[in-house]
Specification:
432 residues; 16 helices; 3-stranded antiparallel sheet; 11 strands; alpha/beta
Length: 432
């Protein structure tokens, strides 16, 4: 692979992995992917949010116009709009859970696009397998070694040295040169970003800057940088330390959200706050990832109040604060939410729901086709359910993810990002 990419990948690995040489093994895999690089760049940012635990789609985007919904959920259904603790009407048939009230202004402004009956074609009801399949982008294939977001980064990187044809696209100069092109606000690299392309995982900006400024790894890397006699070493070191300087200058502890945005004082709220800070600091962030757990509601799920409502409140207020904070920057930023599968259409005997199939996702940003529920609604009549128990799948998650990376980020080699997927543009839900 190109020496400049090799040096840059190595420099980042030295800093974040404590001088571990493991990046050498992973970087070799990037060569084949790099041959397919061809995108349009443009300074866009994609923020992926994983709701781990399988969020209950039917109580998130409520089909109050379907009579079967209330018959199957006598104790946990969300009441029709206009009634006590009722849902928030969107289009006369679907509504939002009351705890998603912060999303209603986004809907009114055309920034919110829900997709219903979307998910994985895999029949698994295992959280571990379903999350793995959604993050790898290869349902029912356990041998996949990397995540689909990392493959996106790899195929849109610089073409390897000696390629016959000129490179026809790629990330913007700001993204390509930044060691912070891909960041996960997590203690370790999530499956979706695992692979040959460099990615940074950090619990918080404060932890990263403290570790980076005081670690032995940085001192060794800085020595390599200062002794470097070639432009390749000097350039890579310069980019890396310049990014760290930018983070330090941003002073995470004194960051003030704009436009009156107020983030919840929760782990997820602070993760969204720090992603917004990275975007504003212009460190070249192209892909960001965060997750939020607590969606496995087998017992005492609740209706308008309760366990699910509490998770939705944190989820909605954090995302709404992020959108408010970024303001006009949301024209270049897109949020994609996902959960490994939905839950059963009928409530169970303990006031909860069990593992199901299709769920719902949200796409939020200035470029979405808002004020519309996307995806084909299959209905909740017994004969319309999957295996007689679940909301049936009508949109493969790879169709939605393909549309997002193609239309928002400019990716063209979708066959490399989602290997084995035979869908085409006609299968895209049309959210952008």
């Amino acid at each position: 692979m190109q020496r400049r990419v090799f040096i840059k990948s190595g420099a980042l690995a030295l800093l974040t992995l404590g001088l571990s040489p493991s990046f050498l093994r992973r970087s070799v895999f990037a060569q084949e992917l790099a041959r397919g690089a061809a995108t349009l760049g443009g300074g866009k940012t994609l923020v992926c949010i994983f709701q781990r635990g399988a969020a209950d789609a039917l109580n998130v985007v409520v089909p109050f116009g379907d009579r079967q919904y209330y018959a199957m959920r006598p104790n946990i259904a969300i009441a029709q709009p206009g009634r006590p603790e009722g849902g928030i009407d969107l289009d006369g048939y679907f509504g939002l859970h009351p705890a998603l009230a912060p999303f209603k202004p986004l809907w009114d402004r055309g920034l919110l696009a829900p997709i219903h009956a979307v998910g994985s074609p895999s029949a698994t009801r295992s959280h571990f397998d379903a999350q793995d399949f959604m993050e790898s982008g290869t349902p029912d294939v356990k041998s996949t070694r990397d995540g689909w977001l990392n493959r996106y980064l790899a195929v849109t990187g610089t073409c390897e040295a000696g390629c016959a044809a000129p490179h026809t696209g790629g990330p913007s100069a700001e993204h390509e040169q930044s060691p912070f092109r891909a960041v996960a606000m997590a203690a370790q690299t999530p499956r979706i970003l695992d692979g040959p392309a460099p990615a940074v995982a950090m619990s918080s900006l404060e932890d990263f800057t403290i570790r980076a400024s005081g670690s032995d790894a940085e001192r060794r890397l800085e020595a390599l940088y200062t002794r470097g006699t070639t432009d390749l070493v000097h350039g890579a070191g310069s980019d890396l330390f310049e990014a760290i300087k930018i983070l330090r200058a941003a002073n995470p502890q004194r960051y003030s959200p704009q436009n009156g945005a107020v983030y919840p004082n929760t782990q997820f709220g602070q993760r969204m706050r720090q992603i917004a800070q990275l975007i504003k600091a212009r460190v070249g962030l192209e892909v960001a990832f965060a997750d939020i757990g607590g969606w496995d509601t087998h017992v005492n799920q609740g209706g308008a109040t309760g366990k699910l409502a509490s998770r939705l409140d944190d989820f909605a207020r954090s995302i709404a604060a992020f959108v408010t904070d970024l303001g006009d920057r949301m024209e270049d930023v897109l949020i994609l939410t996902m959960s490994e599968f939905g839950r059963t259409a009928r409530q169970n005997g303990t006031g909860g729901t069990d593992h199901g199939q299709a769920g719902c996702m949200f796409v939020i940003g200035g470029s979405v086709k808002g004020q519309k529920i996307h995806g084909r609604w299959p209905g909740l009549a017994p004969e319309q359910l999957n295996e007689g128990r679940d909301l049936a799948l009508t949109t493969d998650f790879r169709a939605l993810f393909s549309e997002v990376v193609a239309k928002h980020l400019g990716a063209q080699r979708l066959d490399l990002i989602f290997p084995g997927y035979s869908g085409s543009e006609k299968d895209w839900p049309g959210v952008l």
